[in-house]
Amino acid sequence: MKIVVLGGGIGPERHVSLVSATSACKALRSLGHEAVFVDMYLGLEKVSGPLEELFRTPDGLCGEVSIGTAEPDLEAVKASREDKGPSRLGKNVLELCALADCVFLGLHGEDGEDGKIQAVLDLMGVPYTGSGMLGSAMAMDKAVAKRIMDSCGVPTPPWRELRYGREDIPALAETLPVPCAVKAVCGGSSLGVALPETREELRRALEDLLRYGNRIVVEEKIRGRELTVPVLDGEALRAIEIVPPEGKDFDYVAKYQSGSQGAREICPAPISPEEEALLAGYALRLNKALGLSVYSRTDFILDGQGRAWCLEVNTLPGMTPNSLIPKAAAVKGLSYEQLCEQIVLLSLAERGK
User: Fold this and answer.
1) Dihedrals φ, ψ of 104, to 5°?
2) What's the 3-state SS for 50-87?
3) Backbone angles phi and psi of 296, in degrees to 5
4) Cα separation of 347 and 353, whole Å?
5) DSSP state at residue 244
6) How far is it between the farthest Cα atoms of the chain?
7) pLDDT tens for residues 285-297?
8) Cα 235 from Cα 219, distance rounded (Å)
9) In degrees to the nearest 10, what's the CA dihedral of 102, 189, 337, 29?
10) CB 31 within 8 A of CB 326
11) What structural domains does the chain harbor?
12) Does pLDDT of 69 surpass 90?
């Protein structure tokens, strides 16, 4: 099968996406598929010859990539592209996608998880992995997703949506409740998220989050255990507990770094059968309400009274070999390579192919 694996892009989750996409590309190639990796933003400026030949390149255009401790320098990425135009799609990206049997979306966050690339591929008639345009867009927008949670009976921490500018920060810093969680509506990978405990931390958080836009969600900070429930083909997989390093929150560094900086991920989570069923039921209910398909991952806090609070749902969760979905799939007996292939096959069936 000819498969284009899209990754990279020009959003804050670029580094994570590069690792997800190149890992999936290598896995699919190991099973005999003609998979090729393409950076959605940089495109194929340095590639010559017929595009069809790219499916037979020895390495699938997969380079060596890694996830650092800092966000990507997006201005440097933009400067590295020969075409300095406004398009967020690089040279020949769509032309190569049109030649594929399926596009594997190794993208995360902005331009990948928000329904935009799904809409483009829908218009082209090209099958792609994961949920469709509308479900992706609703899940990505934290304020919209919260409204869906409220409407379908999935508990979520008390919240409000705010639009603000720099001039509003002094008043907000004095009136919003603390501690709280402050989130950019379209952030991901723990980027665009702050957990201020004091009013000064809240003020700094509000200033910093303006980098991601002027819409935020402010929610009550629920203390408890962090758990996540992957869903694959309409089935909830075993829950995973995420234990941040001592004295730290589950931020970008804790999520992606190993050793003392990284979080421990326990799969299956050490919770009771009743708690497992509660989390699975909420995850499946939210997936159905949003119209999601193929695979996803829903994040929760389980408080000291055994109540589950839904934080968000990810429609294109991390797909590195060490990511949470592959860990839960391994408990089910699926290798990383088998999981990648199953995502492709389920997606083709979802789109009638």
Assistant:
1) -90, 120
2) CHHHHHHCCCCCCCCCCCCCCCCCHHHHHHHCCCCCCC
3) -165, 180
4) 8
5) P
6) 62
7) 999 999 999 999 9
8) 29
9) 50
10) no
11) 2-130 (3.40.50.20), 139-155+223-315 (3.30.470.20), 159-220 (3.30.1490.20)
12) no
Which residues contact residue 283 at a Cβ distance below 8 angstroms, ignoring those fewer than 6 apart?
229, 231, 236, 296, 298, 313
**Distance (Å, whole) CA 313 – CA 327:** 17
Residues present in the chain in total: 353
Tokens of 62: 């997969």
This prediction has a pTM of 0.91
Q: Pick the more confident residue, 69 or 279.
A: 279
Task: Report the alpha-carbon distance of residue 8 to residue 61 in Å, rounded.
Answer: 13
Contact 298, 231 (CB under 8 A): yes
- φ and ψ of 242, to 5 deg: -110, 120
Q: Which residues pair with 159 in a beta bridge?
A: 219
In the block, residue with structure tokens 């592959």: 326
31 near 62, Cβ under 8 Å?
A: no
Across 98-109, average pLDDT: 96
